[in-house]
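Side project, low priority. Logging it here so it doesn't get lost.
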Amino acid sequence: MRFFSIIFSVLIVNFSVLAQKSDKKNIGHINDNPFRQLTDLFATPNKYHNASGAPGVDYYQQKVDYSMNIELDDEKKKLYGEQSITYYNNSPDDLEYLWIQLDQNIRKKDAPALEKNESKFQLIQQTQTFASSYIKEPFDGGFNIEWVRDINNNPIKYYINQTMMRIDVSKPIMSGQQYKFKIKWWYNINDHVNDEGRSGYEYFPKDNNRAYVIAQFFPRLCVYNDVEGWQNYQFWGNGEFALEFGDYDVNITVPSDHILDATGVLQNPKEVLSKIEYNRYKKAQNSFEKPVIIVSEDEVIEKEKSFSKTKKTWKFKAKNVRDFAFATSRKFIWDMQAVKIGSNKVMAVSLYPKEGNPLWEEYSTKAVVQSLITYSKFTFDYPYPKAVSVHAKNQGMEYPMICWNFGRPDEDGNYSDRTKFGMISVIIHEIGHNYFPMIVNSDERQWGWMDEGLDTFVQYLTEQEFAESYPEVLGTLEKYPSRRGDPKKIIPYMSGDQNFISPIMSNPENIFQLGANAYAKPATALNILRETIMGRDLFDHAFKTYSKRWMFKHPTPEDFFRTMEDASAVDLDWFWRGWFYTTDFVDIGINSFKKYSISTSPPDKVKEMVEGYGINSDEMIESIYMLEDKDDQTINKLRQDRLKVLEDYLKENNSDSEIPKYFYEIGFEKPGGLVMPIIVKYTYADGSSDIVKYPVQLWRKNLDQVYKVVTSDKEIIEVTLDPNFETSDVNMNNNNWPRKEIKSKFKLFKEKIKG
């Protein structure tokens, strides 16, 4: 079968009819073509962020080093800290003050964030929900700042505005200078299971123990950059964190029977581990085949029976990280395995209570290992010394080198496929956040999709490779059941109520459906770019280029968009505009299918037309005429007539080409707002088929309807659009010729019930 465009020599009659004279002109209009360039939305390139999407020649970013002494009071559920901060002003600006994030202040009794949403009475409420909302005393959280001092212990004036604190320096911090100061603070640790939160503790009543996952626990410098100066958007709960890179030296004091892990490298393992634990710890450093259990489940069960009254201090150092977090409990089982990433040896680590087994011992570290391998393949070699997965009920949260993850069997150790795959997926996702945004350090407070969407996309790739590495995990399934990334799975969201859909390019606080908007839709968009628009080779090169360009730097959305085009030579402005800046959806259909025959004799319609303009049809030049097969003339005769003139032409031009047997004109409509390539499957009478992809540029001059001429040696009996569901087309009922009813799952369910 052959597809090609045919140029027919036809008589074209141009005429104009002046129906009525009018001096009125149509009013002008702006360029609203979806293929117009994005210069109206993109920031102008400059010396900090250049036009290619790379850091500019004068790109800069600040650096902040922290030295901290932290103590956890397990009995009182309090955290105490004293920290020294060194701020490096690498900007060209002199700074009159510093802004610090106090994210724990979202938990103060009078925090404005607690009242950010409207509230209405629900006619039916669970007792716990009602009591928590209207009776229970609110949790008394938030930072208690005891003092702020300079390096000489002189008090520094400061001012707290909700979740931000301004440090009023005595004289401006000049460009190129350092500034050192100290803060002492404490706060009450929240129960993250019952009171929610990205960190806190889980209480286990059966053994009267707690497991702590601690983050956002210290005052952290806001970002100061060339894009917006100080990052000054308050922490309202959804938008996450914009932070500067720096070095950390942290001492954490906890009960002696606790096991603790954190961002950075443990400096004193001999001091905090038993001799047996230390030997296992050392063995794990070279165990590349399987994890070594440092603290076993049986040992944890013994620990849970008593509570140490003594303390130990765990010491960590971390280089070039944007944050710090830790987890600690006497309930933690601890395992780790070494994995080779490029020239680096990385420790894949898991911490989990016995309540997580057998699921966690079986799959957690495997998921960490696979994440490091796959993410590194698509971005850059993982540069940090370890990656830690910590089990915490209902949690899914990320920090440099460490993250919290949900997924728990029932009390008997049984679990469903949903629980198993949910746990594996969240571990992959949160470990993946080491790449976006812990290293490629986008502003999560402003652009949630830049970390969540990119991470979810690579998560999808990693899940599929996890199933290839561990096929036994699938059971009876054919492929890994990825929740997000498959183009079909975003259709319910994109076809939903427009009143509750926001563009991807929206602040997380202004989004109605954060999961669909910041995670699923951008991940789907990138998957479509890779598989359908650009192709894997071009996409993978461009994506890796962006990742490497912005390692340990602060990219903007324009940097990503520009780099993807710069490194691929593919103009994607139409794609970014439609998928990221609008809430339009894909709906492309077939609205006409016509069969044609060719003839050297003009059909009656042509004769009538030309004779109406005073031209004798007998005097028309020799041409090829297209005759729709439903025309009244005798088709067989015309089909015979066509042959001689074409055969003679082909002989004269020494062509071996054969005349196609079948000619079709297919019309495509676009009820949806998004332009996309037209992917068509042609099925023939002999049972064979071909898939053809027409470029998106087909829509550039007509956004409503376009046509394609198709020639074939075989009869087409069926035409199907998007046969492999590549474009997230929201309406499949117009995707076939002849028309087919695509029954919804609900309709199929109803029919099944009726019998």
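Brief comment: The chain has four domains: 63-114+131-446, 447-583, 589-661, 663-754.
Revisit when time allows.
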